[in-house]
Amino acid sequence: MKKSRGRTGRKRRRKYLQNFMDGVNCSHKLEYIKLKKWLKDRGFEDSNLRPAQFWDTGRGLMTTKVLQAGDLIISLPEKCLLTTDTVLSSCLGEYIMKWKPPVSPLIALCTFLIAEKHAGEKSLWKPYLDVLPKTYTCPVCLEHDVVSFLPEPLRKKAQEQRTAVHELYMSSKAFFSSLQPLFAENTGTIFNYSALEWAWCTINTRTIYMKHSQRECFSLEPDVYALAPYLDLLNHSPNVQVKAAFNEQTRSYEIRTNSQCKKYEEVFICYGPHDNQRLLLEYGFIAMNNPHSSVYVSSDTLLKYFPPLDKQRNAKISILKDHDFLENLTFGWDGPSWRLLTALKLLSLGADEFTCWRRTLLGDVISASNEQQTLNVTAKICHFLIEETQHVLLQISQLKRKKENLEKHLSLVEALRLEDLKILQKSAEILCNLNMATA
Asked: pLDDT by residue (tens digit) across 403-438?
């Protein structure tokens, strides 16, 4: 009997350690106790979800029971959601209604978040604000040194994002000033750029889609945002499927899982079939082994493998541009994309084959030499991108040693680039096998 008890003890210890590895329950933390009480007062029934800290995804929600496909994960009553209705029913409402030209629904929500954060203890939304991230890792928040290591298409989008947020701030300053009667302090210090950046990131990374009818007090931009306390602790996985929507009958936002989930495991939802560049741009994180991930090939990289002496070069580029074949050219886990191969096939057409360009765009085989030339150039581009990625990874590791304050942000870009490297190496392997098969 003694031996049996020892085995049970070992089993329990193993189970405890397994649970610890899966996730550490954080329900006992004061911020979550206050949030749950606040939600309960608004009609939220305690579900089987518990806040927890996970070693790989950080903060998330674990389930205390086995979830089957079709089960309801969470049902959040309308009263718990923060929408433009919330903003209009606050003291900001009258100022928004009389401001011309009308502010956007996005600015209305940003303004509300900044004002409530400033109100501190007096805010009715304090229990929710207390669990929101203090900082974000979206490209708009990254230092220039870090942004420079992003892949070229993402770097461009990151700069566009930064410009858009800055313009949003500049165009809203007069509206922020109009709110002065509501505050003892100067609105310029309350509604500063970093406050807007934080509010913008909160909305961009955490809102759920919820369509509202058009109102005259807002500009014509779609009013589709809702912040969902507690629900927004659910992390993304590209490998799960969920059904999420506002239920008009129950007046609640509901999420049902299409996947199974074991007891004490992290519960995931899917934000959409996004690649890692999109996840980093919009949400400030990446997903490891993301099946949707791709490495983008810029048109500059593409064209440097074709001689400027080719008399049809400009005509080929014009055709690719007209048929939208110079964008979204990628390498994925299954090798070069059809779009990339098609663009390279057209650029590889010999002078005597050029009249067949329409057939190329339809995917027809033009000649054995064209196929071989395409594979050779694709392999060269792939190897060039591998070397470039390895060089960037070396630069990142050197900067991490020099600038410890940037380590968190640099590690994020490093993870993105390491994932790119894995995709490119897999593509190189596929191309090598294709070359051997056609040799």
From this structure: 989 999 999 999 999 999 999 999 999 999 987 877
* pLDDT tens per residue across span 95-106: 999 999 999 999
CB 116 within 8 A of CB 128: no
Residue ending a domain, among 227, 245, 273, is 227
User: Whole domain around residue 305: which residue ranges?
Assistant: 294-438
Whether residue 213 is found in the same domain as residue 314 = no
Residue 260 lies in a domain: no
For the whole prediction, is pTM greater than 0.85? yes
- Let me know if residue 199 belongs to a domain: yes
Q: Are residues 217 and 139 in the same domain?
A: yes
Q: What is the count of structural domains for the chain?
A: 2
Domain boundary among 227, 251, 275: 227
